# Entry
Amino acid sequence: IAVNDSIYIKDLDVWKEAGHNTALKKTIKVKVENGVLKIHFPQSSAGQSLISAIAIASTYPNIKPAPASPSLVEKSGKFNTKEWLDIGDKVYTDKNIVFSQLPPKLFGATFLSSKSGSAVNNFTLSEGADVYVAIAQNTNGLKDFEDTKTTLQTDENSGKTYQVYRKRYAQAREVTLPNMGNSDYLIIAKPITKLEPAYDLKSSQEYKPNVAKYSANLKLEKLYKYETLTFESEKEGFISWNFDTGVADVYSLTLRYANQTGKDIKAKIQLFSLDGTLMKEEEANFSPSFEGKWSYFTTTTGSMINAGTYTLKISNPDVKGLSISKLTVQ
# Structure
């Protein structure tokens, strides 16, 4: 555990010191200069760094705290701002309807709360933010917003469901939403962050051989109970999948494969945009797999890609016998 680039705790074993279901508290005394306190974790030997809380206190009893940060959304007479949105918070100022389910990324966000039937379509951001619009009906008014593929729910009528859309505003500005008619919608804002969301909370999409394009020298067969494409020659042939992304992000690309040749098989993997532009190319190494078992090869898009349609192509293996049965995009 490092503070201001100096390591204070090394080789911490939480399990050894606290066991399970028990809080482990560590206190570090540091000197803060120029108002900067940076806490980071340079290395994790096992698992991931998991922090439940960080408390900061001064050894000077008469110190005055810094002023509170400004609200992300400037207050207005048309709505209230609810900081740190959570399940159980009221949806409207004049009704006892509460949030019963939220996507993980919206916990702790700023919610613009108003009376029921009183739409908020204009507000001011004090800094750059992701603005989320949760809407109960289909509408064409959110063309500039990304579909996050997530929903939130209220307890009205045993659970009213809202589809969540997002748009990023890079800096402080006045925001005017498009006209959405009589649609029932809610507005939530969150500061821009570079932190990646939890990997296991990201949605994934699977693509099987029945939706792939492939060359004539590949064999479509059943292998270990799954439909599979097998390269029957080396240095030629290809498999490609088109896949869609709903939001701008870095995506992982996982291939389920079998290699019973006893040798490493090297093949070319390419990522193309919809217009055919080559975005990434790499040599993949498919190591031998056990008899009757599948192995997995995972790569990424390399950088953040926008919402849209892309093509992943696997080609030119240096040894025949590579079988691929699935692409998973997450």
About this structure: Residues 11 and 328 are 35 Å apart (CA to CA). Residues 14-18 form the longest helix (5 residues).
